[in-house]
Amino acid sequence: MKKLVLIIALLLSACSSPSQAMTNKELLENFSDDERFGYITGTIEALAFVAKVNKRQEAATCLTNWFFGEGDGMTEIVNRIHDLPDKAPQATIYVLARKKCGKF
Q1: Is 83 part of any domain?
Q2: 75 pLDDT exceeds 50?
Q3: b (16+ CB within 10 A) / e for 51-73
């Protein structure tokens, strides 16, 4: 189980070193709206998958409802990405999701 979480974390980091990791500013400036949507959606899906694998169904359901259902997850994420241009998108999304839905 822990190996799976580690693999997903590595995939999310895109094998970049912290000094080379993409910033929120780069996500906003270099990705089209569709590409940005796909990037953010993929990150949320990965986090929901981790929650499900870790038998945290409530967190998985919370994430999918917040982002894909009646919640306003995309708006919250994009607003925070604009507010934190020098931070990594994965970290920004993770922190928001964790605050919203608890431990994965």
Answers
A1: yes
A2: yes
A3: bbebebeebbebbbebbeeebeb
Total-model pTM: 0.78
Q: Which two tokens stand for residue 63?
A: 């994430």
- What does the alpha-carbon distance between residue 48 and residue 88 come to, in Å, rounded to a whole number? 19
What is the mean predicted confidence (pLDDT) over 77-91?
A: 96
55 within some domain? yes
Report the number of distinct structural domains present in the chain. Answer: 1
In a domain, 22, yes or no: no
Domain assignment of residue 57, given as a range: 27-101
Work out the angle between the directed axes of helices 33-53 and 73-83 (0-180°, nearest 10). 110
Q: For 30-56, what is each residue's pLDDT tens digit?
A: 999 999 999 999 999 999 999 999 999
Tell me how many degrees the CA angle 33-35-7 measures, rounded to the nearest 5: 140
Output the pLDDT for position 15. 47
Q: Which structure tokens are listed for 96? A: 């928001």
Asked whether residue 74 is assigned to any structural domain, the reply reads yes
